[in-house]
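PROTEIN–LIGAND DATA SHEET

This sheet pairs a single protein chain with one bound small molecule, nicotinamide-adenine-dinucleotide, given as SMILES. Inputs appear in the order they were entered. The predicted three-dimensional arrangement of chain and ligand is reported afterwards as a token string under its own label.
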Amino acid sequence: MTLRIGIVGTGGFARKHADLLAATDDVEIVGIVGSSKNKGDVFAIQYDSLGYESVSAMADAQVLDAVYICVPPMAHGEIERELIERGIPFLVEKPLGTDAEVPQDILGFMRLKSPDMITSVGYHFRYQDNVERLREDLHPGRIGIATGMWMGDMPEVSWWRKQEQSGGQFIEQTTHIVDLLRHVAGEVDEVHAVYASRFPEEEWENTNVHDIGTVTLKMKTGAVATISNTCVLPSGVGKAGLSFYTREGLWEWTTGHLKVTKINEENVFAEESNPYFRQTKAFLHALRTGDRSGILSDYADACKTQEVTFAALQSALSGRSIKL
Ligand SMILES: NC(=O)c1ccc[n+]([C@@H]2O[C@H](COP(=O)([O-])OP(=O)(O)OC[C@H]3O[C@@H](n4cnc5c(N)ncnc54)[C@H](O)[C@@H]3O)[C@@H](O)[C@H]2O)c1
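PREDICTION REPORTED AS:
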């Protein structure tokens, strides 16, 4: 059965998903929604598809088995509501919004209108071999402390640099590390964050996002985690990772490796998988068969990650700890 897929967005990640879908058997990209019809058309022509100016225009014109939503954080809301109203499953890129309210509203609407809808959220690291290894090896109750980071440069796209459009680095980018922490170590109970703008306007014009920050998270198990992020580094210099310090040893995950150190034993596992491919495969399988067991992050679960990252912003702005 050929699946008929639509895409919303014409940027870098719409292309990433479009390329994956175009290389997949029995999948047809039937429409691309741009912020204008012309932008949709220009993108669509490369995939032998058609451009549209809105989700409703695409859904009126095409039979859709699912839609991939690849828009910046501030653009969420109407797109999801339109798809839920029509009962069309979707895979949406992280983060779910700039705050926690919009995703919660969407989730509430979904539960009301289409409670069994298949959804997937682009927390692709969950599909790595090494993350599966972490989940197999580590018991949340044995973790003492975890330390995570996303240390990078200031992205070029203008929306990323605007707090009101991206939600800031912790919500937009470091959300991957928060999501992994939840996936491996369980739920978060309380957060306390300190953010600052260390080099405001130094060389990044029209920027109002914090450029450094650290968040302390108390886990429901009693473990403690800290996650730091910055976007002050020069381009191409940076790292992201999450380490777990346990009674049995140290597990140090980065995007490309996992290093496990125990008494008299050290192993390094290079990541060999393509998690984006697995993520899409699991979603398409669910559409075909109804079996959603391969989807590792759905909309309801991703709302919990969003709740944590937004609470961190509230804590940084208020100077108070936020209990979830
Ligand atoms: N999972 C990952 O590894 C990963 C990596 C990169 C980006 N992303 C996520 O993907 C999303 C998009 O990022 P990007 O890098 O493609 O950004 P981008 O700026 O390259 O592209 C965004 C596109 O969305 C379009 N757009 C904005 N509002 C729209 C609307 N209402 N309807 C239709 N199109 C609209 C813009 O015109 C633009 O073409 C972001 O949330 C980002 O965090 C995820």
